[in-house]
Write a structure and sequence with these properties.
The protein is α/β, with parallel strands linked by helices. 47% of the residues lie in helices and 11% in strands.
Length: 486
């Protein structure tokens, strides 16, 4: 099936969903389409496995396999009968599957559907969608490849429709740049502890596919290289679907909160070679999660908690590329102590300062890319201020927006600079000693920037004040706790 036909199927399915009273926006419709696609794709793959291995035990049994209740041959269920079957029989069965371990397909399916519900109210419309989806062949590499690209587009549309709730979609150019600079290799253990919709994992998989030279390489890449953890049910489903569509047959992703594990319980056997991630920022974790961290570095700020988790999770020689907000760079108190540990025990070799609007419409907060390795202490930190293209600088509003987003090609100047670093109008370096003297403040401004006063927007000023007040409140809380102990 060519791209035009497949795109037509998905468009028609989404148009049908617009008629259903239970679905209002793409934020509602795309997750519903995802669980339908997931079950069809999984059933196609199961049939293929059964053909290749006569002893294969299917994870989903009759009458709950897609082919049993949703195939074109199954004409009996539609309308209220179909909705009743899906809501009261199929979903409870899938949630109740029990595997022998967390990697068992039954365990994975149970996790996928644990907090996913069918929101469609019309069984007639649901039957029409199922009929359309039956035309997609998920054993065809061409169909899967095309569907993967269409699905990525849908995830982006969902992010845009979600606005400030679209935290589980990282712009593809940012993901691709981080992966290309980290250069993951087959045989390494690669982790995204805040998986979202799986962008870092799918991009890493695409990057490493060309490294396969023998059957053993495929086995290692498919089953022993890529790992992810996702806390929320909806991005977990979307991520699982995304990984399947990109050709990862049994995704090693867990439905869990990475921060739930006390840091002292992470031992050498739990460590990984590479971490690439965009952890959530701006949110807060509950006190029970905070107690998993050393008392001196407890904070409710998720970005700082994830930074500690990542430092503990990397094995010797390991490397990380991650997204952090500006607040992480200038954080004081607990933040200062965390960054002190980062510079003393890791080589923080590069900070890429991204321009405003890269994550629009999710947030206007400016973000940065941190690259560090567990290979000794930091001697110097190189900064690169990613410039806006010349044509954008002439615009009335030069910031990136939803309609005019960042393009991957815009990283070319940074990539050329990466391996032969020299100071220029966008690049500078600061010694670790100088950073330490400045209380480990990593928010170092470009010394070569033209001296044109850049006025901050009211939103930025408010965010900065809020961040500082939050840090002051944390410090006061710690002081009060010390007083009470005495």
């Amino acid at each position: 099936m060519d791209e035009k036909d497949l795109s037509s199927i998905i468009k028609r399915a989404r148009d049908i969903m617009r008629k259903d009273a239970g679905l209002s926006t793409d934020v509602d419709r795309i997750p519903q389409l995802s669980w339908i696609l997931f079950l069809k794709a999984f059933d196609d793959l199961e049939k293929e496995r059964a053909l290749l291995n006569a002893k294969h035990r299917e994870a989903i049994q009759e009458p709950y396999r897609w082919r049993d209740w949703a195939s074109p041959i199954e004409k009996g269920r539609t309308g209220d009968e179909l909705i009743d079957f899906v809501n009261n029989k199929l979903f409870p069965y899938l949630r109740g599957l029990i595997g022998t371990d967390e990697k068992d397909q039954r365990t994975v399916i149970a996790e996928v559907f644990r907090e996913i519900y069918n929101s469609m109210r019309s069984g007639y419309l649901l039957r029409d969608i199922i009929t359309l989806i039956n035309d997609i062949d998920f054993t065809s590499s061409d169909d899967i490849h095309t569907m993967a690209h269409l699905y990525e587009s849908m995830l982006k549309e969902m992010r845009d429709a979600a606005g400030s709730n679209g935290e589980f979609y990282t712009p593809r150019p940012v993901i691709r740049f981080i992966v290309n600079q980290i250069q993951p290799q087959i045989g390494e253990k690669i982790l995204d502890p805040a998986l979202g919709t799986g962008g870092f994992m799918t991009e890493s998989f695409e990057y490493m596919k060309n490294q396969q030279q023998k059957a053993e390489d495929r086995e290692i890449l498919q089953y022993h290289t890529l790992f992810g953890i996702e806390k929320k049910p909806m991005p977990y489903l979307l991520g699982m679907m995304n990984l399947l569509l990109h050709g990862i047959e049994k995704p090693n992703i867990k439905r869990d909160n990475s921060l739930r594990t006390p840091l002292y319980e992470i031992t050498e056997k739990d460590r990984v070679d590479v971490i690439i991630t965009n952890p959530p920022f701006g949110g807060e974790e509950e006190r029970g999660i905070m107690s998993n961290f050393p008392e001196a570095t407890r904070t409710s700020e998720t970005a700082l908690l994830f930074l500690q988790y990542i430092m503990r999770k990397l094995r010797d020689g390991g490397r990380c590329g991650m997204v952090v907000p500006d607040g992480t760079l200038f954080a004081t108190g607990v933040g200062e102590r965390i960054k002190k540990e980062l510079l003393e025990n890791f080589n923080l070799h590069t900070i890429v300062r991204l321009p405003k609007g890269v994550f629009a419409p999710y947030t206007d907060i400016q973000t940065n890319l941190l690259f560090f390795e567990k290979s000794g202490h930091t001697k110097e930190v190189w900064y690169f201020e990613h410039p806006l293209p010349a044509e954008r600088q002439q615009m009335r509003n030069p910031c990136y927006t939803k309609s005019i987003p960042l393009q991957y090609e815009e990283f070319s100047e940074l990539q050329e600079w990466w391996n032969s670093r020299t100071k220029n109008e966008y690049a500078w370096k600061v010694s670790a000693e100088e950073i330490a003297k400045n209380h480990y403040n990593l928010d170092v401004k470009n010394p070569f920037k033209k001296n044109t006063a850049e006025l901050r927007s009211p939103e930025e000023i408010v965010m900065s004040i809020t961040e500082k007040e939050k840090r002051i409140s944390e410090l006061m809380g710690q002081i009060l706790s010390l007083i009470k102990e005495k």
